[in-house]
Specification:
This protein is an all-alpha fold and 171 residues long. It has one domain (3-160). The chain contains 9 helices and no strands. The protein has helices spanning 3-10, 18-29, 32-46, 50-61, 71-76, 80-95, 108-117, 123-143, 149-160. The chain starts with a helix and ends in an 11-residue tail after the last helix.
């Protein structure tokens, strides 16, 4: 399992075994920076009851999000450019056999799974991703500096934020 896939699991809705599974996967495959940030995330959410983690997840990502977890929205707002980006993502994710699992294509979780599945991801995505993740992390740190999801966003940036753009088989 690639780092981006491991980090993507952190954005999924919590389950009774999620923290233990993340911890196992971190030790097996994560790089040093990703591992360090993911350990902090897992340690902090692991101290919560499942109900508390579910509430934190929902509060951070869903009902009244502390940051917007949609790459296209953060990059372009609600305009035609986001729509075109999402259409391109749908096609690229389908070609890479990435299941959206009920999320919009520009949600951070399927984006990470797509990056793990495609060696030559969309250039638009690779171009905006480091800035977008940094912005998401900055917004969350301002709104809730002690939120464990700050560590998850730092891990996201560590594993996906510095990907080189591949065009026509060349980097």
């Amino acid at each position: 399992m690639q780092n981006t896939e491991v980090v993507a699991l952190g954005f999924r809705y919590p389950t009774p075994v999620a923290a233990a599974e993340l911890s196992r996967l971190i030790e097996a495959d994560a790089s040093n920076d990703v591992k360090r940030h993911m350990r902090q995330f897992v340690n902090e959410v692991g101290e919560l009851s499942l109900g508390e983690w579910e509430e934190l997840h929902t509060d951070t990502l869903d009902l009244d999000p502390k940051f917007v977890p949609y790459v296209g929205h953060v990059a372009w707002g609600e305009n035609y450019r986001r729509g075109a980006f999402m259409a391109d993502l749908v096609a690229a994710m389908a070609a890479a056999d990435v299941d959206l699992m009920g999320e919009l294509p520009d949600h951070i979780e399927p984006i990470l799974r797509y990056l793990a599945a495609d060696d030559e991801p969309l250039a638009d995505l690779v171009e905006v991703l480091p800035r977008v993740i940094s912005e998401m992390n900055s917004v969350l740190k301002t709104a809730a500096p002690d939120n464990p999801y700050c560590h998850l966003l730092a891990a996201t940036l560590a594993c996906a934020g510095n990907r080189p753009v591949t065009i026509g088989g060349r980097r």
